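From the shared-data thread, chain only:
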Amino acid sequence: MTAADGSGPVARRIRLDPDPTAAAHYSPGFRIGDLVIVSGQAALDEHGNTVGAGDFDAQAAQVFANLRRVLEAAGSGLEQVVKVTIYLTDMARFPEIVALRARHFTEPWPADTIVEVRALARPELLLEIEAIALAGGTLVG
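Structure, as tokens:
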């Protein structure tokens, strides 16, 4: 996508309804041509309420559901993800992250960075994932 006057690419905000990011004044992500950039997704439901406080598996399921929702709203999907950054409050969960990557992503596997952080936006949150994906492109392994 380029601007109507040909001046360059257009970044289109990804829209969700309801949008849990609106109250915090950030966007779920942007689509720029065939590239989708997704904000960090945490274990929040579509109204911004925490899901699974203290339950890593429940939070991981919600995080991936949110990631899928934003990607699909942009015309993409988990199978089109080329890069993820995963934030964990406890690196002891690393083996569980490996299993989650195998369950939710496909080959060629996305590029990946995992970082342990002291805390996320809410004290009960255990992980957050941000992503970059293609929409309409082809991944070649």
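Strands lie at 11-13, 29-32, 35-41, 81-88, 111-116, 127-134.
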